[in-house]
Amino acid sequence: MADDASDVRIPLVEERLVTSKREVETGRVRVRTLVDENETLVRETLRHSTVEVERVTIEREIDEIPPVREEGGVTIIPVVREVLVVQKKLILAEEVHLRRQIQIEEQAQPVLLKTQRAVIERQQSGGGLSTTQEESL
Q1: Which residues form the DUF2382 domain (predicted)?
Q2: CA–CA separation, 61 vs 83, rounded Å?
Q3: Which DSSP symbol is given to 127?
Q4: N or C: which end of the chain has fewer CB within 10 A?
Q5: Dihedral sign for Cα atoms in the order 64, 65, 69, 74
Q6: How far is CA 124 from the centre of its chain?
C-alpha cells in the first residue's frame, strides 16, 4: 500500500476571471442653435454744418496783402488785385465772409439685433426627450 499512497494525485483547480465590455446606448444628445431677432430703436444726435458766403466790396488801396482772419465767428479771406497805374498799388477789392451755422437734430433709426442661443436636448433610451440646458449669449 505504500506504493498506492505515493501515487495519489490531488487535482488543483484554479478559477480565472474573463471580462469583456460592450457599448450600451443610454441616450443621445442633440445641440441646436436658435437665433432670436429683436428690433431696437437707436437714437443718435447728428450735427450738420453749413457755410454762408457773403462777398463784401471794399475797393480800398492797401500797402500789403492782409492775412486771413476770424472776427466774431466769421472767417474773412481777403481778395486782392493789382491795378496798373504809373505806380503799382494794392487795392483791397473785397473780403469773403464765411459764417458757419450749426444745426443739431436727433434721429431715430430702427436696427435689427440678433441673439443666438443653444438648446441642448438629451434623448433617453426609453425614447423620452428632455431639455437639459439652454445657454444664451
Answers
A1: 10-118
A2: 10
A3: S
A4: N
A5: positive
A6: 41
Question: DSSP class of residue 73?
Answer: T
The residue type of 18 is V
Task: Compute CA distances 133 → 29, 89, 136, 137, whole Å.
Answer: 11, 89, 10, 13
Q: How many residues appear in the chain? A: 137
Residue whose C-alpha cell reads 454744418 in the numeric block: 49
DSSP classification of residue 65 = P
Element (H, E) at 48: strand 27-62
Helix spans in the chain (H): 2-6
Mean pLDDT by groups of 10 residues along the chain of 137 residues: 67 84 85 90 92 93 94 94 82 91 90 86 71 60
Contact by Cβ (8 Å): 57, 79? no
Contacts of 52 (CB under 8 A, 6+ apart): 98, 99, 100, 101
